Amino acid sequence: MKSAHQDVGNQFDSTALLRSVNLRPTRQRKALAELLLRHGDRHITAELLHEEALRAGVKISLATVYNTLHQFVDAGLLRELVVDSGRAYFDTNTSHHHHFFDEDTGALMDIPGDAVAVGSLPHAPNGRQISRVDVIVRVRKDDA
Amino acid sequence: MKSAHQDVGNQFDSTALLRSVNLRPTRQRKALAELLLRHGDRHITAELLHEEALRAGVKISLATVYNTLHQFVDAGLLRELVVDSGRAYFDTNTSHHHHFFDEDTGALMDIPGDAVAVGSLPHAPNGRQISRVDVIVRVRKDDA
DNA sequence: TCAATAATTTAGAATTATTTTAATGAAAAA
DNA sequence: TTTTTCATTAAAATAATTCTAAATTATTGA
């Protein structure tokens, strides 16, 4: 039998995590943090995460999923990826790395380690500084 | 006085260009080809190109601008860029090069020559082949 | 040259992803 | 607790793009 407390057996302390980035540990934010960060690296859209939360029995609106994802990005818990226009992907891996993007399926994959090396960057124009370098390796079905 | 023929003094033959890629040289397609390809490299959105066409006195609908941009991409006359989710940019430079993206202003700039070198690419997963490698160097106002 | 055919354009409706609004509910501070 | 502040939500609003079906225009072949 399940205990009466809402202990779902999460392996990390989402409350502490949220507190550490100055976000109130609400039911919704804890649930999303657990869905997103419990497992290893994930690439997900707001829409899909919302569906996943609902399937997991979490009552949450799509607007809150959007809000929360953006707050997580601001807090450095997630990184936002732009690979096809029209939808935003969120990546739970915030360390420096690049991506494969499958043009046929829309799937995103991390490129392992430093398998991509960007040599010699140009310097940024006028009063600008480089904030990030994104490398997207687009792949598609082999025509062979 | 202007001649009675519709000779607007374009420096290249848009009709021939369109024919060469199997697109009928309609009034609208010729006008867009001229706006896009007359000058050097451009990065533009459908919305902005539409406004520019209207300002130039070309009667054309936004739907046609979208259709035409995609046809030009398919024909290899343009390249579509994805840099911020929500809007698509089209680049008149179809040769191999990369981009700066100014996160503050939304401006795109070509990165000159081979100022960016991508060393060692990983090979594509399973039955996939690499179709393109995009490098986007995101810049923002200097915090200094 | 001209009708017949096929391709293109268009206005407007529809779609998709996302953001905003204004009201209600929950967490932190007093 | 009570108050204050922050978060959530449903629903409406917005933005970019695509679709639809009708009207127009380009090309082809007599």
Could you please describe the fold and organization of this structure?
The structure is a homodimer of 144-residue chains. Chain A has four helices and seven strands. Chain A is an alpha+beta fold and 144 residues long. The first copy, chain A, has two domains: 7-90, Arc Repressor Mutant, subunit A (Orthogonal Bundle); 96-139, no CATH class. In chain A, the strands form two sheets. A three-stranded antiparallel β-sheet of chain A has the order 1-3-2. The first copy, chain A, has a three-stranded mixed β-sheet with strand order 5-4-7, with no helix packed on it. In chain A, helix 3 (46-55) packs across helix 4. The radius of gyration of chain A is 18 Å and the shape is globular. Chain A starts with 13 loop residues before the first helix and ends with a strand. Strand 6 (117-119) of chain A pairs antiparallel with strand 6 of chain B, so a sheet runs across the interface. Chain A binds a DNA duplex (30 and 30 nucleotides) through helix 2 and helix 4.
List keywords for this structure.
DNA-binding, alpha+beta, 7 strands, Arc Repressor Mutant, subunit A, disordered N terminus, homodimer, 144 residues, three-stranded mixed β-sheet, 27% strand, 2 domains
